[in-house]
Design goal:
There is one protein chain. By secondary structure, the chain is of the alpha+beta class. The chain has one domain (32-200): Glutaredoxin (3-Layer(aba) Sandwich), CATH 3.40.30. Helices cover 30% and strands 19% of the residues. It is built from five helices and nine strands. It has helices at residues 2-21, 68-84, 107-116, 130-135, 175-184, and strands spanning 39-41, 46-47, 57-62, 91-95, 122-125, 139-140, 142-149, 152-159, 199-200. The strands form two sheets. A seven-stranded mixed β-sheet has the order 2-1-5-4-3-7-8, with helices on one face. A two-stranded antiparallel ribbon has the order 6-9. Strand 3, helix 2 and strand 4 form a beta-alpha-beta unit. The termini are far apart.
Amino acid sequence: MKNKVLLLALVAVLTSLSSFFRPLEGGLQVGDQAADFKLKNVDGKTVSLADNKAAKGYILVFTCNTCPYAQAYEQRIIDLHRKYAGQGYPVVAINPNDPQVTPGDSFAEMQKRASSKKYPFAYLLDETQEVARTYGATRTPHVYVLQRAGADLKVAYIGAIDNNTEDGKAATARYVEQALTELMAGRPVSTTATKAVGCGIKWKKKA
């Protein structure tokens, strides 16, 4: 009887962990057409994916100011932009957190962080959280690599940047870089999805 109870508890935990990493129901999957948006950048201008006609794709990152995981990946996100923007794949970062829950993620704080860290990419506020919900993002950071397909953008990869949340130099698998290397070589992406490890998005409290 005791073993049966322990087994049921283990199943419950595993089920919980599975849902913990599962994208929001209805979120985009690999191969889907990427949803465009119009969000406010830290410079006050509105940005959409359609703005950059020359882009071959995008490294779309849901991230924030306050999450320790997002902070640990911050320089790696900057480095990704510096490495790939010139090759047609710029970073677009989106903060989906509700500042009523985490005041450090307010638009004013986003502007301060982008300035102090000299972000070379757009850092956008998803004020309604509709973009995060549409994509199915659940974590910060949570990455979507998008690839140009004619007039559309398709989702080519979803998940983590690499497999080391503390030290990028110690990572043994660099998922985003691998995906981009394969896309630019005209090859299919070999690893199309991984678990996004980070803080849960701070959703607006229901009225």
